[in-house]
């Protein structure tokens, strides 16, 4: 108990000016604070909301000053440098004041990069498929016996990993929000999967701003580095036409053969990067669906740039298990399959989910709309969806979009009601697909909680 008292005394001591301020006390913020403290910075963490108890304990254990439930502006505006949580938008009033004062603002991945030493980074971004592709690359690395860490937007702080358990290789999922505040961050291998309209509320509703944000992943790369990208994505290829790059470019495609990179022809994936060539039947891929053929090609190329042998790539691609909340099979109840795709927080993700379904479905949609254009999935809904169950507080937009496409649209406001309603609407040999196309904050803390509640409700049937 004495140690705790001493730590609380430290927290209530007079605030010192300057130093490194960390704004936001989530996974990335706490990780940044721990790394900053370890490297000798005078660190102070400030969160406008409440901190998780586990994060508080980590801060206390590391003797890091913090506050929650509000910000001490005088302290923050006297900082030498600020690490801003990716969740805090530029329109935030405190951020505006920080920018007006000209205080340098960086992201947690920039701080991690600063202290990663000689370690290599494979960084993956894109509007959809980031988590799956990042996890697949990490799985290939583990199968090949490489000492790697899985970090970034996927759940474990890059900065905390560098502080507590540094590795020679980091496989990092990177969001546009994390890229917005990089300065020198430079991955050895960058992967850009696709770009579709998402998070436009954070980018002044200008698609070009979001595109530019995604492309920041390559802005510091040199001729020693690799850039893996989707040649079938028109947004990416149009942007590339405007750029002069001095990076090793490795495209992947399902529409054309490439000299270097990867392509699929006659149901065979061909990888050509180093001396070694890899060919593999798409029917051996653990991940199913056209979008996952893109993800698997990207992962295979990344593995080849790391010198991983083709036998190991083949083995890993065959043995990979898909992620929780991403097209996750939950159970079959009286002939009805239940699939949890709670991670689908935009329309494009739901398009991918419907595209990979091979049976009629009852689709559970809804949540916090991020400016969705549902016409994008209209044809697939018409072709594969027999009923829609809305799970959200405001479902007017969904009703308006699909009233002439689907006969049955039902409103619910909990996972339990949504699952029960969907089960009653589905017939044997069909599926119930949770792929909401929306954020989850109206009824849940995050998409993970939404997915867990869905699975609990299925088990109660």
Please give a structural write-up.
The protein has 18 helices and 20 strands. It has 461 residues and is of the alpha/beta class. The chain has a nine-stranded mixed beta sheet with strand order 7-8-6-9-10-11-12-13-14, with helices on one face. A six-stranded mixed beta sheet has the order 15-16-20-17-18-19, with helices on both faces. Strands 3-2-1-4-5 form a five-stranded parallel beta sheet. Helix 2 links the parallel strand 1 and strand 2. The radius of gyration is 23 Å and the shape is globular. Mean pLDDT is 91; it is low at 1-17. It holds the Pfam family Mur_ligase_C. Residues 124-302 form the Mur ligase central domain. It catalyses: UDP-N-acetyl-alpha-D-muramoyl-L-alanine + D-glutamate + ATP = UDP-N-acetyl-alpha-D-muramoyl-L-alanyl-D-glutamate + ADP + phosphate + H(+).
Q: Beta-sheet strand percentage?
A: 15-25%
- The mean pLDDT is 91
What percentage of residues falls in helices of 4 or more residues? Answer: 25-40%
The shape, in one word, is: globular
Q: How many independent structural domains?
A: 3
